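Entry 14. Structure prediction run on the chain below.
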Amino acid sequence: MAGEVPGTSRIVRAEAERIGVGFGLDGVVARVTTWDEAGDAATLIAKWSSPAGSRREAHALQCLAERTSVPTSRLLAAFADDDAALLLLEDLAPARQGDAIEGATASEALQLAEHVARIQVAFHADLAPDALEGFRVWGADPTGQAERTAKRLPRFFELFGHLVPAGLHGPLEHLPKAILQAHERLARAPHTLLHSDLHLDNVMFRADGTPVIIDWPDAARGPGAVDVGRILVEGITVETRREIEAEMWGRYRSTLEAAGLRVDPDELARQAADVQVIMMGGVVRFREPDADSPARLVPIIENLVRNCTAALVL
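Output returned:
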């Protein structure tokens, strides 16, 4: 049975099938089927990744299970030493994995934004000051980001400049400075829990449409607008973004306010704009496709360029 692990019965057989190849998941992921002495089968997900990332993900999943009812992949066991790490996770099958190229539907994306808001309420520094203990701070090394962006811009224009609106070619030269300014402003925002890599490949959708956020090795504490901004850039097409962006921010804000948080609409809009600037820098620095890259990489980058530039203000 998917999502269950044999109890006290001795496992007599196991088979593993690698899954998620090319879908932006951290580490190596496999579905493991086990059989006990009675012949009963069960499945779980095994994930091998870096010790640091594995520890962050295990900590995030444990905290999420304790503090919120928002569905996530249940952590069954974790093993780590200085060189390697393994997580055993609930198998969410038959849930469907999201696709960052196709994008979510409008209703899926809006529900995902509400899930993000519910998580952030449970971990918001103004409501639960101790909830963020053990999480690193998002947005490390803004200076390095700016410097790498400046170095990478000429090559970015060679590869993807044809997707950038003509009116942005000149302003993009100022992107490195804008990244530093955006980080400086966002550093003053209240902290909450961030997934930090919320592209649609990291979301599973159950049969009833319920989103389940997976792959948490980049979990961090930081301004909540970051994860919503990532949905807008990496979770939907530019056409869907134009349709629902205002409603998405409105639902996000309403969920926070319903929990007792005060949200200044103008400040939230400024944070949203700053997140777009930082994400545009990430797109510019995105690793260059080569012969060994998954076939999905180029269309994913093209989607990122379209979505980032659609709302970029420099």
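The chain has eight helices and ten strands.
Filed with the rest of this week's runs.
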